[in-house]
Write the structure tokens for this entry.
Amino acid sequence: MNILLPVRDALDVINGKWKLQIIIAINNGNKRFKDIERQIPGITARMLSKELKDLESHQLIKRTVYDTLPVSVEYTPTPHAATLMPLIEALKEWGTLHRKKILKDKA
């Protein structure tokens, strides 16, 4: 089986600086736009909005609009997003090891 095609498909969905951070923020209970924005240093409201739409189109998050005054919107992870959690955990573990190695080699 060609390994490049499925890896490329996965990277197309989670590519960029923000998508995994947004998924992690939402999985950690940040459901409203401003909460997500505050959780991720450096992201702009415009970029967050774009990335949320993209994640919704890939069925990784669900956007729910509540008929309140003012209108409130919440974002929640879908069951499909849960399938990313082992990958996120593996990236966290690798990133921790990599940081230790780099800092050790610099010392």
In short: The beta strands are 61-66, 72-77.
